[in-house]
Amino acid sequence: MTQAFSSTAMVLAAGFGMRMRPLTLTTPKPLQIIGGRTMLDHALDKLIKIGVKRVVINTFYLAEQIEAHVKSRRDIEIVISREEELLDTGGGIAKALPYFEGLPFFCLNADLPWLDGDTSSLTHMREAWKPEIMDALLLVMRTEKARGFPSTGDYAMENDGRLKRKNVPTPRPFVMISAQILKPDLFARPPAKVFSNNVIWDAAEARQRLYGIEHNGTCYHVGTPDDLRIANELLASGKGWGV
Questions:
Q1: 91 belongs to a structural domain
Q2: Domain of 37: which CATH number?
Q3: For residue 104, what are the CA distances in angstroms to 84, 96, 155, 221?
Q4: Residue 71: which of 40, 95, 97, 49 has the closest Cα?
Q5: Number of domains in the chain
Q6: What whole-number distance in Å separates Cα of residue 48 and Cα of residue 57?
Q7: Is 28 within a domain?
Q8: pLDDT tens-place values along the chain, 243 residues long
Q9: In the 3-class helix/strand/coil scheme, how is the chain assigned residue by residue?
């Protein structure tokens, strides 16, 4: 990682995975297997590839399983941010804020796997980051190409990369698919102890400082047990997740 970024990233892994029941009654969603590896390990692998040295993982539901699993990783330093109550995505990041050294940092979901194209999408994000105009940069994908997502989409994207959804009717052409670069200042005055990253994104959009970059590979939003089965069958068949 360059000096422009924190050498510490975050992976969000605290949620219940309700739609994945009954699988998640005994195994947390980040530890479900995609292509022979847990979804959490896929996220960690991507961060290691771009030079991240330390990762904060927030835990809550079935926390002991996740914490025991990552002890086997010797290729990256792991810091556990155990939550006594579920803080949601924004609250979980705010709790971990001191680890990021006051620098922009990567944050990934532990339960939304994607496959890169010819080069790493995280590398593309790092190269596209412009702190003078951006407060947050989201990895997005065209809604019609993103497997497992609702057809409504999340955002429209301007030619310069700015994202917007306020007053934009659905279907919107892009979905956010897990990875983001965030400025720590966004969380310096959290609106509550428990809050969603949507609060942060909406505020950045209002300032016209929310940007996106298009993912150059494929993804599968594994939301249900059937999604997990189909995603693995496509990988095993060699067809992959392209649409």
A1: yes
A2: 3.90.550.10
A3: 26, 13, 22, 26
A4: 40
A5: 1
A6: 14
A7: yes
A8: 555 899 999 999 999 999 999 999 999 999 999 999 999 999 999 999 999 999 999 999 999 999 999 998 889 999 999 999 999 999 999 999 999 999 999 999 998 899 998 889 999 999 999 999 999 999 999 999 999 899 999 999 999 999 999 999 999 999 999 999 999 999 989 889 999 999 999 999 999 999 999 999 999 999 999 999 999 999 999 888 987
A9: CCCCCCCEEEEECCCCCHHHCCHHHCCCHHHCEECCEEHHHHHHHHHHHCCCCEEEEEECCCHHHHHHHHCCCCCCEEEEEECCCCCHHHHHHHHCHHHHCCCCEEEEECCCCEECCCCCHHHHHHHHCCCCCCCEEEEEEEHHHCECCCCCCCEEECCCCEEECCCCCCCCCEEEEEEEEECHHHHCCCCCCCCCHHHHHHHHHHCCCEEEEECCCEEECCCCHHHHHHHHHHHHHCCCCCC
The packing angle between helices 63-70 and 39-49, to 10°, is 40
Query: Contact 183/131 with Cβ under 8 angstroms?
Result: yes
Structure tokens at 86: 């579920």
pTM (2 d.p.): 0.93
Whether 70 is in a domain gets the answer: yes
Q: CA-to-CA distance for 88 and 163, rounded, in angstroms?
A: 22
User: What Å distances lie between residue 51 and 11, 45, 119, CA to CA?
Assistant: 15, 10, 15
Question: How many Cβ atoms from other residues are within 10 Å of residue 54's Cβ?
Answer: 16
Residue 242 lies in a domain: no
Range of the domain at 216: 8-237
